[in-house]
Amino acid sequence: MPRFFKYKFEGGIKPHIALCCLLLGEYEAELKKQKEREKNNQRKKQKYDNHPWGIYPFLVKILSFGYLHNQLNNPADYIRDQFFRVAHVIPTHVVPSDVLRKKIKNKGLPVPNYFLDPDDPRQFPPHIALLVMLQDGEMESRKLDSFLNRLVFSSFALISLLLRIVLEVIGGAGAIWGGAEVVKLRNADNAELWRWLSIGVGVLCFARFVTLNVPYKEDEGDILGPAGPWSLRLSLRLRA
């Protein structure tokens, strides 16, 4: 049995420690690759590196004023992404999980939710995160990075967003317009008034939609979306 599944008296180690060791190794390897790419880009005088999606991630951050990040479909990529944001403050020696959280918070950085307190409802169990990373090392989930899979998820997300706008924004304005006609409040003489009332309600509905859906700093810990750990399952990831 792996040591991160054993109790301390059995010679086991904490899952968050094993996860830190694994991700720190990947982080250092990624830094070396970035340095090599920077050298190659300077020689070739390229402005952007050879990212598979070109400058798309850069444009996403610019257009969203830094609130949004590039879409990640592979659960292991979510785990890496959050760890790499705080990797420079992660101690190289063994520390308890509460000390680790304190070091990250003291730097004003979001705590990855696999490092959150177990009592926090947003916590993603570190032993599950570790298993996800080990599974990714076997290339079992690389199919999630395929172009077809990205296209399906992106299309589904876009259609879902448009449908929510139709239902929650345009639907609110349309309800005022149609409801006024049903109860015979709207007629040919006051149609223009009700048109502006419907537009006003539509504006309020849009403001509500933005307020409920705009990303907040406290949402940083939700690495796998509203479905939490069960976002690893395709059907629930789509529903999330």
Explain the overall architecture:
With 240 residues, this protein is mainly alpha-helical. Helix content is 57%, strand content 0%. It has eight helices and no strands. Helix 1 packs across helix 5 and helix 6 (147-182) runs antiparallel to helix 7 (191-213). The longest helix is centred in the C-terminal third of the chain and has 36 residues, at 147-182. The radius of gyration is 24 Å and the shape is elongated. Residues 45-53 and 222-230 have low confidence and may be disordered.
Strand content: under 5%
For the sheet with most strands, the description reads: none
Number of strands: 0
The proportion of residues forming helix, as a percent range, comes to 55-70%
Helix and strand content put the structural class at mainly alpha
Radius of gyration: 24 Å
Distance between the termini: 34 Å
* Average pLDDT, all residues: 76
Poorly predicted spans: 45-53, 222-230
Shape: elongated
Order of helices and strands: HHHHHHHH
**Helical element count?**
8
Which helices and strands appear, and what pairs or packs with what?
Blueprint: H1 15-44, H2 56-63, H3 75-86, H4 97-106, H5 126-137, H6 147-182, H7 191-213, H8 234-239
Helix pairs in contact: 1-5, 6-7
Summarize the structure.
The protein is mainly alpha-helical and 240 residues long.
List descriptors.
single chain; 240 residues; mainly alpha; 8 helices; elongated
